[in-house]
Amino acid sequence: MNARILSGRPVAEAILARLANVMEELHRQGQDRQLLIVTATPDPSSASYVRALQRFGAKVGVTVTVADLGPEASAARIRSVLETASADDAIHGIIMQTPLPDGITLAGLGSAIAVEKDVDGANPASLARLLAQEPCFPPATAAAVIELLDHHGIALAGRKATVVGRSLVVGKPLLHLLLNRDATVTIAHSKSVDLPGQTAGSAIVVAAAGRAGLIGPEHVGPGSVVIDVGTNYDDTGALVGDVQADAVGAVAAAMSRVPGGVGTITTALLFRNTVQGLPAEAGPAVPHRAKAALQGACPPG
Predict the structure, then answer these.
(1) pLDDT by residue (tens digit) across 60-99?
(2) What distance in Å separates the CA atoms of residue 22 and residue 215, rounded to the nearest whole number?
(3) CB 258 within 8 A of CB 230
(4) How far is the C-alpha of 199 from the C-alpha of 217, rounded, in Å?
């Protein structure tokens, strides 16, 4: 493999260090930050992720509360909890954990999360604000792609980028995040005609289709940067991305891998959003010294 590996770990570690400093200052001021995770699933991988969020919260000093409503919870019950939390001044961030009970969708519940507490961009209003370049929290995975590129010095302005994937969690919000950074962006997907022809001429290729091994060496050109956002599991249960890592790494100039890339940053951004809030957010302000510790950690406008 010739490609430079774009690791997410140093990005996440830098965010974690800043947040720990900020929370230390907030605690000295008698303030706290609380993240509420609402769950309604017995899914073991979801439970593992929630535990990981709790561990991360403990590291940075953010209180993490879990409201486990059980797999029989109705949409009305879940919505009520989200609306109550949105009105609670003691809660600064809200995550609606998936999967959800049969017949209930995140799209149908996201509007119950107040935009200023919607740290993972689940409310359709957050996406609308992103399109209008107004203060919002984009979905954390999409934002993590930008953080990774910025940390490793990958220029975006004026360059052609192709995003393979059209989900509301990654593809569509990432399109606008890249446009806001003056990239020329194409959205493609697994059903695009001549996908290699769409991607091979791009300076930056982001694979976010959720199909293991979809992107091979024929999809990239020499000098390209490839970001793998795929989360798939192979026959052995190992986590793999959408990119044929070894083969693509022999062609691309730089690439991220799964695990160890974008996913590593996503969790850190959820906590950063909880701590710093939106620029226009009312309520307790982050003290000046705490704000200084966050400089350089905010997502690009």
Answers:
(1) 999 999 999 999 999 999 999 999 999 999 999 999 999 9
(2) 40
(3) yes
(4) 11
